[in-house]
Design brief:
499 residues, alpha/beta, Rossmann fold, UDP-N-acetylmuramoyl-L-alanine:D-glutamate ligase, ten-stranded mixed beta sheet, six-stranded parallel beta sheet, 19 helices, 16 strands, 41% helix, elongated, binds ligand NAX, binds potassium ion, EC 5.1.99.6
Length: 499
């Protein structure tokens, strides 16, 4: 199954195109219900009690199909319908007509008596916050502690944003159709889904391609072909030279973490540019990484006269203020690839327009911005269309469009967005990746990949994935220093898979 993610409207279009191409909607619903049936059957002993809760739309229709097929397999099925059976329309009405068992009112069923619950209340058609009977039912499902298989999306989760609309079903497993939706990856939706399975209901790859809008799950097939594989004929100077700007004497560790990650990610050479009063502190800790003194923006400008520095990383430990903003501005004028993190971003708080100028002055080199949520909100506080965007995916995309840079909006569900509209949602970061200095390492990996000539979007997406993978491989107890040391294993797996 492809990595595309389908928004609610895109999924509706894909359904409609498939129907227009000759597959009746009722057939799609039958396949959807059959996939749910198979998922339930894998989790339930024959004869176990299954409660199917149907809503008023086609999500409920899938539930009616599943109820019929589960009963035919010998399960004890009871079914409740939210709303009036006479109000069902189209394919849902047809599917309901084929269910010959009783249809109960939700208030009259004992939710906790079921071995497993099928949640077919709302899917991509959820139009507003749950209230009244729907809200009460969802609360009863969650309080029951029963296993729940959700149809398409746990009811109450917005498929585009992953937001909880009033309340939402906490599922143990979710069966979705054709492709995943952003809500299966974005928080909090992802945790409400449990495990997620994508069922093929006959929507072709071509139809998905025609309907999808360049949003993907972040995984190696998106960028593996762009990962530079060192050649025996190459040499270190061909793998780029990253320059990482250090903070003052008491704030040097962040830059060194980033520099080591850049080197481990494959940059040919890495140099730390250090304020003169921090040179000795840096010197005491660096071996393979080189060190150059640098005094303010003028000092950075002099260093950049050396064209071999093809990537600059500014931000980790840099300090917030005009001095850091000046470094960024100097770097911008030199057409080098740029990774801006942490304090470099906060030094432009409320001044995304200023950052846009810097990005434009780097053209055609790539610029990657790596804010976490707080830095993002500060940076874009004057850009209403960014901060008020309805989903994290939209926020990152609009930020990329506004700045002209690749934006990595970090979190457990990091979104990577390019100015051309491409976006990827990451899902491999373990909880223990949230540790001091981990962002510095991410920025360093991105710089290391850019140094080797990767494009901005691919470098950023690969860096985010490699960072998550390194943390997963290391396991709990991880500290940021460990990440770079696991990168060789991550890289050899990636390169092994390319060969
Ligand atoms: N042909 C198709 O379009 C297919 C659709 N499928 C299923 O159909 C679902 C989408 O169906 P629909 O577009 O009918 O949408 P849903 O079934 O998700 O929900 C729409 C219905 O819920 C009501 N509703 C929305 N929000 C509500 C709220 N907060 N409180 C109370 N009522 C609310 C609406 O008035 C409408 O009656 C998918 O998630 C999927 O499960 C599958 O059967 C595959 C084929
Ligand atoms: K559902």
């Amino acid at each position: 199954m492809g990595l595309e993610l389908l928004l609610n409207a895109e999924m509706r279009r894909a359904d409609a195109m498939t129907i227009a191409d000759g597959t009746p909607g009722r057939t799609l619903m039958e396949r959807a219900g059959a996939a749910v049936t198979a998922a339930v059957a894998r989790r339930c002993a024959a004869g176990e009690r299954v409660l199917v809760l149907c809503g008023p739309g086609n999500n409920g229709g899938d539930g009616f199909v599943a109820a019929r097929l589960l009963a035919a397999r010998g399960h004890q099925v009871s079914l409740a319908l939210l709303g009036d059976g006479a109000a069902l329309r189209g394919d849902a009405a047809l599917a309901a007509a084929e269910w010959t068992g009783p249809v109960a009112a939700p208030g009259s069923v004992a939710v906790e008596a079921a071995g497993l619950i099928v949640d077919a209340l709302f899917g991509t058609g959820l139009g507003r916050d749950l209230d009244g009977e729907a809200l009460a039912l969802v609360e009863r499902i969650n309080a029951s502690g029963r296993r729940v298989v959700a149809v398409d999306i746990p009811s109450g989760i917005n498929g585009d944003s992953g937001a909880v609309c009033g309340a939402a079903v906490r599922a143990t497993h979710t069966v979705t159709f054709a492709r995943r939706k952003p809500a299966h990856l974005l928080l909090p939706g992802r945790v409400y889904c449990g495990t997620v399975e994508v069922a093929d209901i006959g929507i072709t790859d071509a139809t998905v391609a025609a309907c999808a809008s360049d949003a993907f799950a972040n995984a190696p097939p998106l960028w593996r072909g762009h990962i530079p594989v060192p050649s025996i004929e190459g040499h270190k100077y061909k793998r780029g030279h990253a320059l990482v700007v250090s903070g003052g004497p008491t704030a040097t560790g962040a830059a060194r973490l980033a520099a080591r990650a850049a080197l481990r990610a494959g940059a040919g050479l890495v140099t730390v540019a250090s304020p003169p009063d921090a040179v000795m502190v840096n010197a005491a800790h660096l071996t393979a990484i080189m060190l150059r003194p640098m005094e303010g923006a003028a000092g950075l400008a002099r260093l950049l006269d050396d064209r071999r520095f093809n990537v600059l990383l500014i931000g980790p430990g840099a300090g917030v203020g005009q001095a850091t903003a000046d470094l960024v501005a100097i770097a911008g004028g030199r057409q080098r690839s740029l990774v801006l993190d942490a304090d470099a971003l906060t030094s432009f708080a409320g001044n995304a327009a200023g950052l846009r100028q810097v990005v434009a002055s780097c053209h055609p080199a790539a610029v990657i911005l790596t804010p976490h949520g707080g830095e993002f909100a500060a940076l874009f506080k004057a850009e209403d269309e960014v901060v008020r965007a309805p989903t994290k995916l939209d926020q990152a995309r609009r930020a990329a469009a506004v700045t002209g840079a690749v934006v990595v909006l970090k979190g457990a569900d990091t979104v990577i967005a390019a100015p051309d509209g491409r976006a990827a949602i990451n899902e491999n970061a373990p909880a223990w990746l949230g540790t001091a200095g981990s962002g510095d390492v991410l920025a360093g990996i991105a710089a290391g990949l850019l140094a080797q000539g990767m494009n901005g979007f691919e470098a950023a997406a690969a860096a985010v994935w490699m960072h998550g993978e390194a943390a997963t491989m290391f396991g709990p107890g991880l500290i940021s220093e460990d990440l770079a040391e696991v990168l060789p294993k991550v890289l050899s797996r990636l390169m092994g898979a390319t060969a």
